[in-house]
Design brief:
By secondary structure, the protein is of the alpha+beta class. It has helices at 34-51, 64-73, 88-100; strands at 3-11, 23-27, 104-108, 111-113, 127-132. It has one domain (3-132). 29% of the residues lie in helices and 20% in strands. The protein has a five-stranded mixed sheet with strand order 2-1-5-3-4, covered by helices on one side. The chain is globular, with a radius of gyration of 16 Å.
């Protein structure tokens, strides 16, 4: 049985409200710890990133709305990429280290989550918010 969670990413600085939409994630199992939660999210995002390598259009284009949304995030791109696939284990390790170093914070509803390996209690339908505190942290997850 899978679990759907909703997450959004906030960054320091200017940001339009429409770029703060919740993104649904389907987890295979309910995580017991924040470490398991972060690892599951990173694995989903790395899988999506690696899958985009083979997605291509004969002629790539962006709509005005897509350009406006991407400009609000600070980067406009076609979403295509080359090179090697990302390593999910290395990415998860990096995400955990960034959490420990305070580069980003995680909130379950209005409650900040601070313990990596403590019991992770959250209600179904809870919205998670990730707040990136360092501008160059590299934690983007495609949002």
């Amino acid at each position: 049985m899978g679990f759907t969670i909703y997450a959004k990413l906030k960054k320091l600085g200017k940001q339009r409200k429409e770029s703060l939409r919740s993104i649904p994630y389907e987890l295979e199992k309910r995580p017991d710890t924040v470490r398991e939660f972060l690892t599951a999210l990173v694995e989903l995002e790395v899988g999506a990133y690696n899958a985009r390598r083979d997605e291509g259009q004969l002629v790539a284009y962006l709509t005005k709305e897509e350009m406006k949304d991407q400009a609000g995030r600070g980067k406009i791109s076609f979403g295509l990429r080359g090179g090697k696939d990302a390593d999910a284990a290395a990415a998860a390790e990096n995400a955990i280290q960034c959490f420990e170093d305070g580069i980003y914070r995680v909130f379950a509803g209005d409650e900040e989550v601070t313990e990596l390996d403590g019991k992770f209690i959250w209600d179904e339908g809870c919205e998670f918010t990730f707040i990136r505190l360092a501008m160059l942290s590299g934690l983007n997850w495609g949002w």
